[in-house]
Amino acid sequence: MEIAISSRGADVSDALASATRTKIAKLDRFYEGLDLATVHYAEQKNPRIADKAVCEVVIEGHGHQVQCTAAAGDRAAALDVAVEKLEHQLTRLKSRAGVKNPRG
Fold this sequence. Notes:
By secondary structure, this protein is α+β, with helices and mostly antiparallel strands.
């Protein structure tokens, strides 16, 4: 799977980029054939929002597109929340893809 990482407002550290590639690559075990993952990090500027770090992930493959947005106190925690959400979505997608039409 090809993984593209981008950021708005600040650079992504090498440690965060490495963790991102490792965790996103592990999602391939939930649904095989995923081609491209785009990860975008951003920071909320509103002082009233406690969870300022935002991680947006879009995964494409086999004609399907799965996306999620997660916010947390720091970027690594936002990535963890996003991976959790994507695991749930990919297992649902896999179970739906395996179900055939009962009417024929």
